[in-house]
Amino acid sequence: MDGAYGKFNMKAGSLVIGVGVVLGLSVGLAAGIDPFINALHPIRAFNLNRWMPYLLSLGLVFLFFATTTLYLNRAWVFERRYRLAIIAAVVPGAFSGFHAGPLDPSDFGFLLVLFFCVAVELFERPPIRTPVPVVCMLLLITACSLASMVNGRWNSILREHTILNKIMICFLVSNLITNTRRLRFSLKVLVFAGVLSAVVGVLSEAVYYFFKIPFTLDSQPDFAFKETPWGLMLRVSAFLPRTQALAHLLILTSSVVLFMPMRWSVKATLYLLMAVALACTFSAGACLIFAILFYLAFFFRRPAHSLHYLAYTAGIMLVGYLSGLLQWLYSHVLMEIGGRSGEDRIEFLNVGFNAIARHPLLGIG
Q1: Contact 221, 41 (CB under 8 A)
Q2: Crossing angle between the packed helical segments 284-301 and 306-323, to the nearest 10 degrees
C-alpha cells in the first residue's frame, strides 16, 4: 500500500464499499420482491411486467459480482475514486426510468456521491469549493420557498426537492471536477450516457416499427405514442422516465460532441445518431432547438465568417419563402408533429401568467 492509500485508511475504504454493497442489494431485493414497489413500475402499463423478475434477477447477479470485484480490487478503486464518483454522478441519470415510486437511480447516485464526498472530506481534507452561482441559486430558492409558505404552507418546500437535489449535485460535482483532466473525463462520461441512450432509443423505435413491441419506461404511457403521417409511432424515452428527458439529454450531449476534440468521422457519426434518436422522440421543440444549436455552432467555430453565414441563411430563407417550402414544412411537418403540443403550451403559459397576476409576490405555493 502506498502512502496515499494509507491516508485513506483501509477500514474506511472497506466501510464505504460494504455500505454500497448492502444498500444496493437491499434496494434491488426490495424492488424485485416487494409487491407494492414492483406494482409502481411503469413497465406494467405495457404488459411487459412478466420480464421484470428476470431483469431484476440479472441485475442483482450483476450487482453482486460488480461489488465483489470492486471490493477485491479496492486499491484499484481508490486510485480511480474520483473518476468512479463522476460516473456515479452522471450515468445513473440516464437510467432514471427504472424507478420505484419517487426514487430512481439518480437519487442513489446522488447518495453515493454525497457519501464519497463526506468520506473524502473526513480522511483527505481537500479544500471545499463553493461556486458563487450555486450559492446564489440556493439562496434564491430558499427565499422563494419561504415566500411560498404563505400560500402553500410548509409542505411547499418539500415539493422542490428535485430542484434542490440538482443544485446539490452541481455543488458536489464542482468539488469533484477540480482540474482539466477530470473535466475531460466527465465530458466523455456525459457523451457516453447520451450515445447509449440514443442507441437504445433508435433500437426501441425499430423494434416497435417492425414488430409492434413497445419498449418504453415513460411514466405517462398515454403520451408514449404519436400519430404521424407514417402511422402510430413510439415516442422513445430509452431508459428515461419521459420523452422530454431523453430529448434534453440528447441536446446537451450533442452540443458537447460538436465542440469536443475528436476525429471528424467519429463526431459526424455520433451527431447523426443523436439526431436520429431525437427525431424518434417526436418533440418538435427539441428538434427545433437541436437545429438552432447546430446552426450556431458555425458561428462559434468560425466567427470570422459570421457575415457569410448570415448571407447564406438569408438567401436560403428567401428561396424557401418564395417557393412555399417553409409553408409546406410548417403545415405538413411541424403542425403534424407538434401542433397540439404547441397549443397546450400556449394555454399553460396563459394559466401561468394569470397566476402571476393574482399572486405577483408570494406565488401560489
Answers
A1: no
A2: 140
Arithmetic mean of pLDDT, 178-199 = 93
Over residues 256-278, the mean pLDDT reads 92
Average pLDDT rounded to a whole number, residues 9-26: 55
Retrieve residue 26's grid coordinates: 437491499
Instruction: Report, in this order, helix, strand and coil percent for the chain, each rounded to 5.
Output: 80, 5, 20
Smallest CA-to-CA distance from 247 within 217, 206, 282, 221 is with: 282
All cell numbers assigned to 60: 442483482
pLDDT of 269 over the 70 cut: yes
**DSSP state letter for 359:** S
Q: For the whole model, what pTM was predicted?
A: 0.74
Q: How many CA atoms lie within 13 A of 316 on its CB side?
A: 6
Decide if 233 contacts 274 (C-beta within 8 A).
Answer: no
Question: Which amino acid, one-letter code, is at 219?
Answer: S
Count CB-CB contacts under 10 A for residue 76. 11
Ordered DSSP codes for 206-257:
HHHHHH-------S-GGGSEEEETTEEEE---TTSSSHHHHHHHHHHHHHHH
SS3 (DSSP) at 103: strand
In Å, how far are 200, 253, 254, 268, 300 from 274, measured between CA atoms? 11, 8, 7, 10, 21
Closest CA to 70 of 110, 17, 121, 120: 17
Beta carbons within 8 Å of 99's beta carbon, 6+ residues apart: 40, 41, 42, 105, 219, 241
For residues 315 and 303, is the Cβ–Cβ distance under 8 A? no
Q: What is the 3-state secondary structure (H, E, C) of 40-88?
A: CCHHHHHCCHHHHHHHHHHHHHHHHHHHHHHHHCHHHHHHCHHHHHHHH
Of the candidates 244, 229, 231, which has an alpha carbon nearest to the alpha carbon of residue 333?
229
Q: Which residue type does 262 have?
A: M
What pLDDT, on the 0 to 100 scale, is given for residue 15?
55
User: Using N-to-C axis directions, what is the helix angle for 161-176 and 132-152, rounded to 10°?
Assistant: 170
The cell numbers describing 345, all together, are: 403550451
